[in-house]
């Protein structure tokens, strides 16, 4: 019984197919709309609007309003499409009848269920031919990166994203066909991308819905956000996305300044149309040649009369350095794009162009390795100054009258101060050549290999140029022979692009492109959340700034109050007006041991004075005086330790720094007056004692071995007792800290000896 579900499914398809065919039958569209067969599109549109308002289901209570409204819409769609209307007038068939006739290929596919999915309804255009139309124009991600993006620098591309089982995609197929028929003759390419097969490309271009149409201009992506139901709206969208001021508008009196701007190394083109707005074909052409030709749209009857252009004709005039007479022109009722491109491409360089970029150099001097077909490029080296204008003008006149074909010899000039690296690379080693106003003859063997020869004479107007030109002409004629060799050869780098934007211009352009691409990538559902996030950020920043402002006001108020208090207390004692940081001493004991030693932050130290109860009154004041200059140092802490409490810890600390494990015999009385600098993080300490001053020795990083005979006199501290001082020297309790200031200076200089330990011993609780 496995075939039962399949049979039920087939029956369901047949039933749906029959019901759908019954619903989509179209009668006589002229009778439905109430117009005659020769009615214009305006009359058909007017009749449709009137009937649509009358039979709209929301505006009438008639039960048959829905069916009547669908019938009116289908009739209008048929008559508004010129191809479908012509087919109906000639053969009396609609699209529905045509695709169900036996001669249609889908009738012979042998599968009646595929006919159901191949049905071309009035709204869905769901036919097999529509899908094949998209597939034929489909490109992959690799083709997009390697071919489409580079070509978009000169050719705009419309990219349509679709899917196989997308009903809206099939519904837009007629509009896509019209776009192809209208835009491709103008120079706009139309390609498609299968969104399911190329999902990464869809994510890269911010495609959120299917179908979707995007415009690619010079690598920048612009998303068309509206539904694809109007060809005119798409055309307007393409027009608005072209670069700003791609075509200048020429009013009366502007033509001279526009034509005299050829010093930017671009030919000038004037476009004349009887319309007020420039047509798309000229915008596409201006975009294609924008690096070589500057276009101006003439919006002046006086300028049209000046160049004798008929009022009802289109015309394009091309000018080089001679602004009084166009070097090429074309005037027609409707200029084809191919003819327009041919005329401009044949005249896209000045009479004497400048080698201003690598692209211009490659176009003027193409590579040719074969000697019989070699092409020479004759270049005059000048400076970007008015002093060389006369030299360039005379060289331009010679280039225009030279008896050579442009396919064999091209003349140009170059700025030495802007292309210094390129020109200097053509100066042979060991020779002294002044390149200014010299002529160099080039032959490009390949992209970087150049064979060249410097012309013997300078191009100087003070001397007889007739002899110079005759010699130059004979030199070029001789070098054109296949048997002649150019003297030198060199490998050169690419020319500097003189027309490139500066760093600020490039950054600004990228930021604007990013903002525009981000805006175009946002759908209507995403704009509101994006605005909400942006508004929240602005609100938080505003609140933060307001709170900081209030805090600043409060601080200023407090400072004013302190100033008033100080001014009131300064009547008798001025010494108390200056605020001084407080110097606090902490006792080192078991409760404070971790905070003062073990848990010190990196870079912090604790200065500890060792004393007892009897010496407290005599040692604290000099210790306070010695460390007072360092009170503002936030990396220091100051403390004292009673030897009675910390003798065990102190003894173990010294024991850890000894090289052997000999037991120390320490007299607590001799420890009084010792100052320790403890670095808790790095685990080392420095020591000061008046009796045994530290001797710095290279490589001494451990306490030396104490001598038993000297332990009572202070040798237990860890130093050798080989000092000049006698062990019998008696120190008074008040002089124990006499050298502490000097020791502190050396401590912060890093010249005192450091005694390293493996760990900090425990501090006993007493």
TrEMBL record:
It is found in: Endoplasmic reticulum membrane. Residues 107-243 form the Thioredoxin domain. Plays an important role in regulating the size of autophagosomes during the formation process. PROSITE patterns: DNAJ_1, DNAJ_2, THIOREDOXIN_2. Its main location: endoplasmic reticulum. One of its GO terms (biological process) is autophagy. It comes from the Eukaryota. Keywords: Autophagy, Membrane, Signal, Transmembrane, Transmembrane helix. It holds the Pfam family DnaJ. Residues 28-92 form the J domain. GO terms for cellular component: endoplasmic reticulum membrane. It is a single-pass type IV membrane protein. InterPro entries: DnaJ_C16_autophagy_reg, DnaJ_domain, DnaJ_domain_CS, J_dom_sf, Thioredoxin-like_sf, Thioredoxin_domain. SUPFAM superfamilies: Chaperone J-domain, Thioredoxin-like. The chain crosses the membrane at residues 527-551. This is DnaJ homolog subfamily C member 16. SMART domains: DnaJ. It comes from Exocentrus adspersus.
